């Protein structure tokens, strides 16, 4: 009967403060982890842009006229660093042995060295001067692509437990 029914029990209120605090703590930890990861990526890209030969040369070219001797010398230094030795037109095969990834631009590189030789040791700058900035920009693109491929092949070595960017430990 109706007089035997008991009234509904008041629901107990669950304290959500600890769960909210935990969610907030983990959200902050996630945000800090993502910020640290992005900062590391930015730092790595900045470091690469200042440590690679053609990246350094491209940075130097931003501050000088591309027809200036300093521009040509900056690109020469990049080639020398890439080859691991001072290069002249006669020693270009050493560059392509050490950096075969530059082979697709061999004709332009040979033209650069021929024009450079004429510019500094011949009758002066040739009439149809090569764009040093465009060449350096293209070589920087190749350099970056080559570095990415090299890093991928190093990190895919069996037994490699971290993503190394240089020959270290067992990689």
Gist?
With 171 residues, this protein is mainly α.
SS-based class: mainly alpha
Radius of gyration: 30 Å
As a percent range, the share of helical residues equals: 55-70%
Instruction: List low-confidence stretches.
Output: 164-171
Strand content: under 5%
What's the helix count?
Answer: 6
DSSP E strands, number: 0
What are the secondary-structure elements, in order, as H or E?
A: HHHHHH
Q: What is the mean predicted local confidence, pLDDT? A: 86
Distance between the termini: 81 Å
Q: Judging from the principal axes of the Cα atoms, what is the shape? A: rod-shaped
Topology:
Elements lengths: L16 H35 L1 H9 L7 H15 L8 H7 L7 H16 L10 H24 L16
Helix pairs in contact: 1-2, 2-3, 2-6, 3-4
């Amino acid at each position: 009967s109706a007089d035997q029914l008991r009234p509904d029990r008041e629901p107990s209120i669950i304290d959500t403060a600890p769960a909210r605090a935990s969610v907030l703590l983990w959200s902050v930890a996630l945000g800090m982890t993502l910020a640290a990861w992005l900062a590391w990526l930015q730092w790595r890209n900045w470091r690469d842009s200042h440590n690679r030969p053609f990246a350094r040369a491209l940075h130097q070219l931003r501050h000088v006229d591309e027809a200036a001797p300093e521009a040509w010398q900056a690109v020469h230094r990049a080639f020398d660093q890439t080859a691991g030795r001072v290069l002249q037109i006669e020693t270009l095969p050493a560059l392509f042995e050490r950096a075969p990834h530059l082979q697709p631009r061999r004709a332009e590189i040979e033209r650069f060295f021929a024009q450079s030789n004429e510019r500094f040791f011949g009758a002066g700058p040739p009439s149809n001067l090569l764009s040093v900035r465009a060449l350096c920009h293209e070589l920087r693109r190749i350099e970056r692509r080559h570095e990415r491929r090299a890093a991928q092949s190093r990190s895919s070595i069996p037994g490699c437990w971290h993503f190394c960017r240089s020959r270290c430990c067992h990689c």
